[in-house]
Amino acid sequence: MERPLVCLCLTGRTLEEDVELANRYSHFIDLVELRVDFLDEDERLNIREFPAMVMVPCILTIRRATDGGQFREGEASRTTLFARGLAFAESDPKKNFAYVDFEEDFHVPSLQDAVLAFGTKIIRSFHDMDKPVPDLAEKLTALRMTGFEIPKIACMPRSLADVTQMFTQAAAFAGSQQIVCAMGNVGLPTRILAQRLHSYLTYTTAEELLGTMVSVAGQEIGHIDPRTLHDQYHFRALNRQTAVFGITGWPLKVTSSPKIHNKKFETNGMNAVFVPFPSQTADEAFAFAKAMGIRGFSVTVPHKEAIIPLLDEIDDDVRKIGACNTVVHEHGKWKGYNTDAPGFSKALREFTGLDDLRGKKVAVIGAGGASRAVAFAVKELGAQACVFNRTISRARAIAEQFGFAYATLGAESLEKLHEYSDIIVQTTSKGMGAQDAPNQDNDPLYFYDFDGTELLYDIIYAPEVTPVMVRAQAAGCKVHNGLTMLHYQGDAQFALYKGVYEDA
Length: 504
Prior knowledge:
Distance between the termini: 24 Å
Low-confidence stretches: none
Helix content: 25-40%
Strand order of the largest sheet: 7-6-5-4-3-2-1-8
Structural class: alpha/beta
Oligomer: single chain
Number of helices: 16
């Protein structure tokens, strides 16, 4: 099939707002969906005029709350609105709705006959806001009541395994026309890789209105904005030969890796795309990578340790550190690497201005996969260190591995933390995406008062200044976030990805 179309869902409160959005994103889209259920009540009276107000084909949709929409006035009112939007067809098809979205159970023969007579295509849709559809091909066949309809399935996966199953089933309907997508955070790969699902189109929402796209139960629909789809993922350039790379972790709502690597792919003339695939478990992430033929992927919290037993080979750094942040599929084998440690070491040396850390005492905050790489780098640089973690057994495991001290992460360890406060390296996820002032929930060192002499390195990079960095700066400390580490370890990752790309 040709590449999927990019559809912009218009969820403004007025037609004027929707026209403005359609014009603003016109460079990135092929058609729009007028979501009448989002319009103010008086605006709904004028929907018939909308197709003539924009420059691209339009889908007429009035989505019920039970299907993830906002319309609650009943089926009689909805039928009347559909009739109003489809009445008085113009001889110029550009002034009519090109498509209308009728749900599986919406059958009004007079409307359907009129639609087909006017040349408007029917999208026959099915939505499950709670669970995946077990057999996509069977359901699509049931929805395909005539040869003139485009069946659509939008469902809510419960895990990445459900998304993997959707892609696996896609081969069964490769030769037909349909729309298929998974909702929610884990459904993002189905939006970017819509061609792999043989989907007729992929849905997007204006960046300004992404927050409006939630179900009646408050679940995220999982749309992406069209500018990001175009500029970051190069959607229109993707084809069946595009090599797929990605990043996995959980919940993976904040990551700059796709932006970094997709830019590198573009700069190096590679037909490749880097896609996030959030997963609650390393096993499901690995199964997705195998099913999708992914060439390589980055691993972030909390899977850097759990991914190791699944691999065929690991390099010496992974063996010494006990954590893996990069996996490539090379010569039929899955191989694991750790680029966090050299990336962090280079970034820390730049931050401190020191070639080594001999004579320094370092506090490593946290005991996950990232902290293992940090501890390894700190050890290589010659520092003494203490690992602090809420679960003391995890702190002990890392500390004993590298010959460091360890302690609990709390007020009871203040004396020990002051002793190892020349450099403090924060490796937990606390503070990631935080927008509030420092508090116990977003600041892992909320109990610690900085005296201004500490050097604080927080490996989080979004937000640019984390809550704990705010407090440290206020006390006069020199602080740094994890963006340089991200770029340095990303350079090493890209070298691995480029290698397997060129060897294929």
